[in-house]
Amino acid sequence: MLPDHLSQTAKRVEARRGYISEAFHSFNQPLTALHCGLELCLLKERSPEEYRERIADALENAGTVLQLSKAVRELVEAVDPGEELQSVELQPALTALSDELAIVAEAAVVGLKLSCQQGVAVFVDPSKLTRHLGNLGSIIIRALEPGGTVQLGVEAGAEYVAIEIAGKGKQRADVDNGLQSKIDTIRIDAANSYAWTLGGEFSKGQNSFMIRLAALK
């Protein structure tokens, strides 16, 4: 029987394999639609309007494949903490992240609120941390009805720093829309894997995510 810490590692690796397998299975749908659409395009002459419609469909399916590819790459890279680990002060990093999320939030008519005291730092790869936090923030934004608020906050203790992204307000009834839900699941697992690789913790609430990392002293 494996020791507890090795057993947990084995479970995480097995779960990650499952997500990757499901992700690659998800590639079949948009790739098949893309291939069939282009094939039908060449079977006979069509009007410019028909060609334009076929190209628009192909572009949409190609975009879906690119999203899946990016999500799987982030999941695979998550187990490597990165070669650029450094002391990162969270207040300016999260301010820049909230500016990026504000664009997504504005499109969804959702408010954004940041709460982080100065001087709080963690030892991470800054680009990877903000990428995972940005993915989690986008998931919550999409889950909220217009008028909701996304709160990005930091709780700092002597031993740990907890970064939480939470959605406040009514949740959308149609948030689970198949392929996007699978992409979100992959990105949630990637954030989980990244926190675990850094020796931290990841937790998921009803409409919130938290990454807890060791505080720099």
Write the layout of secondary structure elements.
Layout: H1 4-41, H2 48-77, E1 86-89, H3 90-107, E2 111-115, E3 121-124, H4 126-143, E4 149-156, E5 160-168, H5 179-197, E6 201-204, E7 208-214
Parallel strand pairs: 2-4
Antiparallel strand pairs: 1-3, 4-5, 5-7, 6-7
Helix pairs in contact: 1-2, 1-5, 2-5, 3-4, 4-5
Rg from Cα = 20 Å
Helix content estimate = 55-70%
The CATH architecture of the largest domain can be named as 2-Layer Sandwich
Structural class: alpha+beta
User: Can you count the beta strands?
Assistant: 7
Mean pLDDT, all residues = 83
Q: How many separate structural domains?
A: 2
CATH fold descriptor of the largest domain: Heat Shock Protein 90
Molecular structure report:
The chain has 217 residues and is of the alpha+beta class. 57% of the residues lie in helices and 19% in strands. It has five helices and seven strands; from the N terminus they run H-H-E-H-E-E-H-E-E-H-E-E. It has a five-stranded mixed β-sheet with strand order 2-4-5-7-6. Strands 1-3 form a two-stranded antiparallel ribbon. The longest helix is centred in the N-terminal third of the chain and has 38 residues, at 4-41. The model has no long low-confidence stretch (mean pLDDT 83).
